[in-house]
């Protein structure tokens, strides 16, 4: 057994599980640190405030990596402090910018769950680590794939939501798709043998994305700071505002989802930037 499973309940009589995803907060030790002109603590702060207003009856929050930009302990403490204001339990996985040992220590010390497998009556959620040491692209290790196999084999009738930092299908930005999940074909072939619904949810690409490929629904979501311009081969920032994603998982395997954003021009990046 490699899975450590936590029950995932629904607050609703209908049994619908409501989740929110927050991703790519890119926080610094300094609350005034900025990424390409966007002060990431302040933009995350604004997103969390908006989440507090909009969220009703959320059963869990999925934090899908790149929580820190400078890998400092303090950056993770800022994240923890904001999450403490949200009532639902938070679950997390690392992104390429995270320093996993520091992240784990800080989130653990704050009492945030280390669970990576959440089990509801009809759905299971698996949070996978796609960090490839020292690389911007991602890869699922044999250990992570073993967790996936175990989830599929043990709960073959449960609908499956896999959360992972890197995109498993190209989003259509050449500069960004070079930093993809390298062994996405292995993930796809494992998912093909799962007969219930399957959804893969990622961060990393700082944009909304929602497409079905070979029976799997692939979702990506805005960052709480800078946004990347969709369908751009070269690095380009987008005018859309920071945001988060809300997901409703229905007992029959359907999933409805919505991207929420701050008002337009809430945080304007430096559009002359060519990378970071
Ligand atoms: N101009 C660029 N060309 C290619 N990759 C870039 C460029 N600028 C930044 N990156 C990397 O691409 C990554 C995509 O999202 P990340 O937040 O992981 O961090 C980004 C950088 O590591
Ligand atoms: Fe990121």
TrEMBL record:
Q: Which InterPro entries match?
A: Calcineurin-like_PHP (IPR004843), cAMP_phosphodiest_CpdA (IPR046379), CNP_phosphodiesterase-III (IPR050884), GpdQ/CpdA-like (IPR026575), Metallo-depent_PP-like (IPR029052)
Free-text remark on how the cofactor is bound: Binds 2 Fe(2+) ions per subunit.
Q: What is its EC number?
A: 3.1.4.53
Q: What are the GO MF terms of this UniProt record?
A: 3',5'-cyclic-AMP phosphodiesterase activity; metal ion binding; nucleotide binding
Q: Summarize where Fe cation 2 binds, as residue positions.
A: 66, 96, 165, 204
| Catalytic activity field | 3',5'-cyclic AMP + H2O = AMP + H(+)
Q: Where is the Calcineurin-like phosphoesterase domain?
A: 21-207
Give residues annotated as binding AMP: 26, 66, 96-97, 206
By its UniProt entry, which Gene3D superfamilies does this protein fall under? 3.60.21.10
Top EC group: hydrolase
Signal peptide (residue range)? none
Sorted UniProt keywords: cAMP, Hydrolase, Iron, Metal-binding, Nucleotide-binding
- Give binding positions for Fe cation 1: 24, 26, 66, 206
Per its UniProt record, the required cofactor names are: Fe(2+)
Q: Which PANTHER family match?
A: CYCLIC NUCLEOTIDE PHOSPHODIESTERASE CBUA0032-RELATED, PHOSPHOHYDROLASE
**HAMAP family registered for this protein in UniProt:** cAMP_phosphodiest_CpdA
Q: In UniProt terms, what function does this protein have?
A: Hydrolyzes cAMP to 5'-AMP. Plays an important regulatory role in modulating the intracellular concentration of cAMP, thereby influencing cAMP-dependent processes.
- What's the family? Belongs to the cyclic nucleotide phosphodiesterase class-III family.
What's the protein called, per UniProt? 3',5'-cyclic adenosine monophosphate phosphodiesterase CpdA
Per the UniProt entry, what species is this protein from, by scientific name? Oceanimonas baumannii
């Amino acid at each position: 057994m490699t899975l450590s499973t936590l029950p995932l309940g629904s607050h609703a009589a209908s049994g619908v599980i409501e989740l929110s995803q927050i991703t790519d907060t890119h926080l610094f030790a300094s609350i005034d640190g900025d990424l390409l002109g966007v002060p990431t603590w302040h933009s995350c702060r604004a997103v969390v405030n908006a989440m507090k207003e909009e969220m009703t009856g959320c059963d869990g929050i999925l934090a899908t990596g790149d929580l820190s930009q400078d890998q400092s302990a303090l950056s993770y403490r800022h994240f923890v402090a904001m999450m403490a204001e949200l009532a639902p339990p938070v679950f997390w996985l690392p992104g390429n910018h995270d320093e996993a040992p520091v992240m784990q220590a800080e989130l653990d010390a704050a009492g945030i769950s280390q669970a990576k497998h959440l089990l509801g009556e009809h759905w299971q959620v698996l949070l996978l680590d796609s960090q490839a040491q020292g690389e911007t692209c991602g890869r699922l290790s044999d250990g992570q794939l073993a967790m996936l196999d175990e989830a599929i084999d043990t709960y073959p009738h449960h609908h499956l939501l896999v959360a992972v930092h890197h995109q498993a299908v190209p989003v259509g930005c050449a500069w960004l798709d070079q930093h993809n999940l390298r062994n996405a074909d292995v993930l796809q072939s494992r998912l093909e043998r799962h007969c219930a619904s399957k959804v893969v949810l990622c961060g990393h690409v700082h944009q909304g994305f929602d497409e079905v490929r070979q029976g799997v629904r692939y979702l990506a979501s805005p960052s709480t700071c800078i946004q990347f311009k969709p369908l751009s081969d070269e690095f380009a920032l987008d005018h859309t505002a920071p945001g988060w994603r809300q997901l409703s998982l229905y007992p029959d395997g359907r999933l409805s989802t919505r991207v929420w954003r701050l008002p337009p021009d809430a945080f304007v990046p430096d559009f002359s930037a060519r990378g970071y």
